Amino acid sequence: MAEDRENAEAIISEVHKKISDAFDVFDHERNKTVDVREIGTIIRSLGCFPTEGELQEFITEIEEEEATGYIRFERFLPTMTKLLMERKFRPIPEDLLLQAFEVLDQEKKGHLGTEELTKYMTQDGEPFTQEEMEEMLSAAADPDKNVIFYKDFVSMLTVDDK
Fold first, then answer.
1. Using DSSP, how many helices (H) and how many strands (E) does the chain show?
2. pLDDT of 159 strictly over 60
3. What is the DSSP letter of 122?
4. CA–CA separation, 139 vs 145, rounded Å?
5. What is the CA radius of gyration of the chain?
6. For the segment 20-62, what is each residue's pLDDT rounded down to a tens digit?
């Protein structure tokens, strides 16, 4: 039993170190606070990918009563530890992402036009902003053909989590 407890403590200690290291990158003042706008980047750097709605809920949970625009490490750490230990907001598996693109590619061409993808991404679900679309297309679109070869794009997006 003592060995199990020591193992659990070691895992939690390692998780705390990862969280602390990620937080410190954005703690420019070195005062254990970060700009609230950096929280999404920190969470994603730790392998969690919440929706914008989930991210806002997370921020609301860790913000001060009187919002200051900054998040303190002591409030971030326990909530982020819980997310990581529960494996919340895991990335979408490659095969599911591929299936989503295949559903959109009704002609089974293996690619989508930039206009077509823009229409899907800005009109349904949690719509992308124009800026987000431009950023995504700059990474996703073949510059010569102006299409997205989605198998290549999905491979670029996914991380082997084994």
1. 8, 5
2. no
3. H
4. 14
5. 19
6. 999 999 999 999 999 999 999 999 889 898 988 999 999 999 9
Q: How many residues does the chain have?
A: 162
Taking the CA atoms of residue 81, residue 82, residue 84 and residue 87 in that order, the dihedral angle to the nearest 10 degrees is 170
Structure tokens at 127: 């719509």
Q: Which helix (H) or strand (E) holds 70?
A: strand 70-72
Q: Computed from CA positions of residues 44, 48, 50, 55, in that sequence, does the dihedral angle turn out positive or negative?
A: negative
Q: What's the pTM value of the predicted model, to 2 decimals?
A: 0.65
Q: How far apart are CA 47 and CA 91, in angstroms?
A: 7
- The H or E element that residue 9 is part of is helix 2-26
Q: Are 108 and 47 in contact (CB under 8 A)?
A: no
